[in-house]
Design a protein that fits this description.
Blueprint (H helix, E strand, L loop, with lengths): L4 H4 L12 H4 L4 H8 L5 E4 L6 H12 L2 E6 L5 H8 L11 E6 L6 H12 L3 E7 L3 H4 L2 H5 L2 E4 L5 H19 L2 E3 L2 H9 L5 H14 L2 E2 L2 E3 L2 H7 L14 H13 L3 H13 L3 H16 L6 H15 L5 H13 L5 H14 L59 H17 L3
Parallel strand pairs: 1-4, 1-5, 2-3, 3-4, 6-8
Antiparallel strand pairs: 7-8
Helix pairs in contact: 5-6, 9-10, 9-11, 13-14, 13-15, 14-17, 15-16, 15-17, 16-17
Length: about 425
């Protein structure tokens, strides 16, 4: 009974996992992969205690592969080599499924060590991270993997797991355990969407409750004393963490510093520094953007300070930055421009790059017009002269529209003046 309760009652079937219905319901892509017993390299991204490790173990059982585990905070390149040495041996006849927890702590060289074996299929990688993999995982690993986002679990979904924990302890120790619904709710709502924390609290309550008249009666007072402090991924009604994150960004976008600081406080009380930093940087670029472009390095500097000093001191630079973003002029012109451009690219609206922009200075024999004919803007007044930059098929497309803020209107006035004199279309 040395293993934590969460390990002793870890689900062995997908149907036993609480939460993650967006991934594990019948018909969903990940569900189908697991049921078919064939999975690609995967990256599981999400908060702690939401089932990432459990799903990896179920996959290992389904695929009949040898499961090996490494943690990015402690593993070395030698640990990887030891696993590689098992390939094609009797200990791993069907290949190896490597579960690499906290992959963001592996440096680029360590991640590169895995590439050869990921590509030839000898190792199937399932990596997990609490950080955004697009920021922290080596691009070559990302390009060979499918990313699935695990979400925080609602309190209502955790209640059955808490109840199951008490039932398991009762059967394991052959003793009756009594508790009421308020105890279950206190533990479920106090764990911040983390099933592991909830089950740790169940076990703590069991150990802290004396036997009376041949049974243990877990009281609400005991649960209140021992339940993990809420990570505040939920409000008082049990709303999910992602609602708080959404409200946080929308409050900054809506120029309400009081609301923005409130939701920042809830994230920091939850210990969710990554989400607070990530959404802050996104908002600075997406919602302030070109109305005050200097805000981007300012916010990045505040985030760097916050990550360097950690909590609780991190709340100070983050509060400064959040208030700055909330009270700054707003423009989403850059965001609109890239979305419009991405839409064209995804629809196939592109075409060959104009000859004058290509990275070559020679012509084939079949070229009707010889020469690259690139015009060097710095040779002209105001460092500008007209030439075509977009492909022929979309040469008249307009993605960017100047915002109405003072900053972008100043840019517009400048370019209206310059281009009006130099455009010779």
């Amino acid at each position: 009974m040395n293993n934590p309760l969460a390990d002793r009652i870890r689900p062995t079937e997908i149907s036993e996992i609480v939460g993650q219905k967006h991934l594990l319901s019948p018909g969903k892509a990940l569900y189908n992969m697991i049921e078919n017993g064939e999975v690609p390299n995967l990256i599981f991204y999400g908060p702690s205690g939401v089932g990432k490790t459990t799903v990896a173990q179920i996959i290992a059982n389904k695929t009949k592969r040898a499961l090996r585990k490494l943690n990015g905070t402690t593993a070395s390149t030698n640990d990887i080599k030891s696993i590689v040495a098992e390939i094609d041996t009797f200990t791993a006849p069907n290949g190896i499924l490597l579960y690499l927890d906290e992959i963001q702590y592996f440096n680029k060289r360590q991640q590169q060590t895995l590439l050869e074996f990921i590509e030839n299929g000898k190792i199937t990688l399932i990596a997990s991270t609490t950080e955004n993999p697009y920021f922290y995982v080596y691009s070559a690993i990302l390009s060979r993997s499918t990313v699935f986002e695990f979400k925080s679990i609602s309190a209502e979904e955790i209640i059955p797991a808490v109840k199951r924990g008490f039932v398991f302890l009762s059967e394991e120790n052959s003793i009756e355990i009594e508790y009421d619904e308020a105890v279950l709710k206190k533990i479920a709502y106090g764990c911040g969407g983390d099933v592991r924390k909830a089950l740790n609290s169940v076990e703590n309550c069991y150990f802290a409750t004396p036997v009376k008249d041949g049974k243990k009666v877990v009281t609400l007072e005991t649960a209140q004393e021992l339940a993990q402090k809420s990570s505040l991924r939920y409000d008082k009604d049990g709303d999910e963490h992602y609602d708080i994150v959404s409200a946080y960004q929308k409050s900054m976008r809506g120029s309400d510093p009081d609301a923005a600081v409130h939701y920042l406080a809830r994230l920091l009380e939850a210990g969710d520094l990554p989400s607070a930093c990530r959404r802050l940087m996104v908002c600075a670029c997406e919602d302030v953007g070109l109305a005050y472009p200097q805000i981007i390095p300012i916010v990045k500097a505040a985030v760097d300070i916050a990550q360097a000093v950690g909590l609780p001191e991190a709340e100070i630079p983050l509060a400064d930055a959040v208030i700055l973003v909330a009270t700054s002029p707003k423009s989403n012109s850059g965001n609109n421009a890239i979305k419009a451009a991405m839409s064209d690219v995804r629809k196939g609206n592109s075409g060959p790059i104009p000859r004058q922009l290509q990275n070559k200075h020679f012509d084939g024999e079949d070229a009707e017009v010889k020469g690259q004919h690139y015009i060097y803007p710095h040779d002209y007044p105001n460092h500008y002269t007209y030439q075509q930059y977009l492909p022929d098929a979309i040469k008249d497309r307009k993605y960017y529209e100047f915002g109405s803020n003072k900053n972008e209107q100043a840019y517009k006035a400048y370019w209206d003046r310059i281009k009006g004199k130099n455009d010779d279309k």
